């Protein structure tokens, strides 16, 4: 891949927040020391996870967090985005773990940035139920009460779009439902949960609140009207269904009518102002008219009934996951958001960006990250207000339905070794040097 790697990366503004991200279910392990989540139920069902694995042990971060915080300190990041497991908080002693983790981070000079929900819903709850939104607000209040004296930046939800689409519409993720468009209430209830969480955090005196949504440019397969229409529809699902209600307090045209409950009243809650908007960016998607057949794409099977089909992006290198590497897609995405939302767009933080590649001398990952950091700088130069960038991920971890087969870490984890040995990869050292040069 052609890169500018080797030339120094231009300086970002003072105060720009550099970090790495993880999530509880993917790294913590210690599954017996908390109640079950929908992911424990899902992974226990044969055939759900490609390598048949579960996250019962994962990186055992629950017991090895001190070692992991030392890795963060060695990397020199400003901030660490992790998630607080709702099932663990519900379990005796669970909140104590996050208390210890936050103390350890603060002592190491790394700012804790918790996500309050990253897909591991307590197994007793269901996003099809409206009440789950209110239960989430209770969970948020409990966490804010305990950690709010040290945590100064918060994320409500991670990727409600993926949790709706993969978990409830297509069945590739927990809880494994295949409701297609009947999954829309799951979107609405998560959005409501987000708005109630913003209120709960503010009531607890917390500030600097955002959400982490996944977004990427949608590239139509051709100029054929059928392809353009399908791509526009897909773009609404990925880039507007969750962003419009949060940023504008309104659903894209035609979608509000499909949502349950008193939607107008709920939108007032959902549109509660956030301090910043988090974007997880991996790649653009090429989309065309439906082709009347199932499509295998990026580890997913997309049913023939969908009103769009996903196509290959050709002439691009791909990661081990098969995702195309398109750094300038990040610039396009960010300038597109600025053009769409104008003055209503809050400051942006890139809450995830990364790639899966094998190996410890991971030059491919360095090229990917280097290209994306430069593409991010191009967006700043184009006038987009971006305040931070978090690499996914600190550690190789349990990559959902892919199990341990996809390695996104800056740090290698030997899952065959009883001590789960951590080895910083070449990309860890590269990122540390990028951060040093920014100081
Ligand atoms: C995102 C998820 C994250 C991780 C990366 C690769 O969609 O938020 O947990 O799985 O993809």
From TrEMBL:
Query: Has UniProt tagged this entry with the keyword Phosphoprotein?
Result: no
Per the record, the GO terms for biological process are: cellulose catabolic process
Lineage at the top is:
Bacteria, Bacillati, Actinomycetota, Actinomycetes, Kitasatosporales
Q: Which organism is it from?
A: Streptomyces cellostaticus
Indicate the family of this protein.
Belongs to the glycosyl hydrolase 1 family.
EC numbers: 3.2.1.21
* Binding-site residues for substrate, renumbered to this chain: 26, 118, 158, 282, 392, 399-400
Cellular component GO terms, alphabetically?
A: cytosol
Keywords recorded for this protein, A-Z: Carbohydrate metabolism, Cellulose degradation, Glycosidase, Hydrolase, Polysaccharide degradation
* Positions of the catalytic residues: 159, 352
Pfam family, any one: Glyco_hydro_1
Concerning PROSITE patterns, the annotation shows: GLYCOSYL_HYDROL_F1_2
Q: Respond yes or no to whether keyword Hydrolase is given for this record.
A: yes
Q: What is this protein called?
A: Beta-glucosidase
């Amino acid at each position: 891949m052609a890169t500018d790697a080797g030339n120094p990366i231009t300086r970002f503004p003072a105060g720009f927040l550099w970090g790495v991200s993880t999530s509880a279910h993917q790294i913590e392990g210690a599954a017996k020391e908390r109640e079950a989540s929908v992911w424990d139920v899902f992974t226990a069902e044969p055939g759900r996870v490609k390598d048949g694995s579960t996250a019962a042990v994962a990186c055992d971060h629950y017991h090895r967090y001190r070692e992991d915080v030392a890795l963060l300190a060695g990397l020199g990041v400003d901030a660490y985005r992790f998630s607080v497991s709702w099932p663990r908080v519900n379990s005796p002693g669970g909140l104590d773990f996050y208390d210890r983790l936050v103390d350890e981070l603060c002592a190491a000079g790394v700012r804790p940035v918790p996500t309050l929900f990253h897909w591991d819903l307590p197994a007793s709850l269901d996003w099809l139920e409206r009440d789950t939104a209110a239960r989430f607000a209770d969970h948020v209040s409990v966490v804010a009460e305990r950690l709010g004296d040290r945590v100064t930046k918060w994320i409500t939800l991670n990727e409600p779009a993926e949790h709706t689409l993969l978990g409830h519409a297509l069945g590739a993720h927990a809880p494994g439902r295949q409701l297609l468009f009947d999954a829309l209430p799951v979107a609405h209830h998560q959005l409501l949960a987000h708005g109630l969480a913003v209120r709960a955090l503010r009531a607890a005196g917390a500030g600097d609140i955002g959400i982490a949504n996944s977004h990427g440019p949608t590239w139509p397969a051709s100029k054929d009207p059928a392809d353009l229409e399908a791509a526009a529809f897909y773009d609404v699902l990925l880039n507007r269904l969750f962003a419009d209600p949060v940023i504008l307090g309104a659903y894209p045209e035609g979608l509000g009518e499909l949502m349950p409950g008193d939607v107008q009243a709920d939108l007032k809650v959902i549109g509660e102002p956030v301090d910043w908007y988090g974007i997880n960016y991996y790649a653009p998607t090429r989309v065309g008219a439906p082709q009347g057949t199932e499509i295998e794409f990026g580890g997913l099977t997309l049913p023939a009934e969908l009103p769009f089909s996903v196509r290959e992006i050709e002439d691009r290198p791909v990661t081990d996951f098969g995702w195309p590497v398109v750094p300038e897609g990040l610039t396009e995405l960010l300038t597109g958001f600025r053009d769409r939302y104008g003055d209503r767009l809050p400051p942006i933080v890139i809450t995830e960006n990364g790639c899966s590649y094998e190996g410890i001398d991971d030059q491919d990952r360095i090229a990917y990250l280097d290209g994306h950091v430069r593409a991010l700088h191009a967006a700043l130069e184009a006038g987009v207000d971006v305040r931070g960038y978090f690499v996914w991920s600190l550690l190789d971890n349990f990559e959902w339905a892919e199990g341990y087969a996809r390695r996104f870490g800056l740090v290698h984890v030997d899952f065959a070794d009883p001590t789960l040995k951590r080895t910083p990869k070449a990309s860890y050292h590269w990122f540390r040097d990028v951060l040093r040069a920014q100081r």
